[in-house]
Design brief:
- It is a single chain.
- The chain is of the alpha/beta class.
- The protein is about 40% helix and about 30% strand.
- Strands 1-2-3-4-5 form a five-stranded mixed sheet, with helices on both faces.
- α2 links the parallel β3 and β4.
- α1 packs parallel to α2.
- It is globular and about 30 Å long.
- The chain starts with 13 loop residues before the first strand and ends with a helix.
Length: about 120
């Protein structure tokens, strides 16, 4: 992906980052909990500080807890946060907690980027 920053390889919850039109895309992967979330939280905070639209590509999330939900809701207060392609695990957590009604959830990054 051209224009990307960050690494697509390695351990941790933070994957690629890149521009997609007016939005900034941040990929989350693996477990998102109190022990692993800090790099992703920092990336989302930096993106929110400089972009009106931030898309979280959540297709590769394997676990998420209340810490993750808290981060997503805080970032939502800072920018137009869009969740793209949440994994079944994350989609279930969002639905069970009702957070899917507070966050903009889209089937994939392309759909999230198209919304105006």
């Amino acid at each position: 992906m051209s224009g990307g920053t960050g690494s697509g390889a390695g351990a941790g919850p933070l994957g690629y980052q890149h521009a997609s039109g007016a939005a900034w895309v941040v990929q989350a992967r693996g477990d998102l909990d109190v022990d692993t979330l800090q790099p992703l939280e920092a990336a989302l905070g930096q993106a929110a500080a400089s972009h009106h639209i931030v898309i979280l590509d959540a297709e590769q999330v394997t676990f998420a807890d209340s810490t993750c939900l808290s981060v997503l809701l805080r970032v939502r207060q800072l920018t137009d946060l869009r969740i793209a392609g949440p994994s079944p695990v994350l989609a279930r957590l969002l639905a069970l907690t009702g957070t899917d009604r507070a966050l903009c959830v889209h089937p994939d990054v392309a759909a999230a980027a198209l919304q105006t």
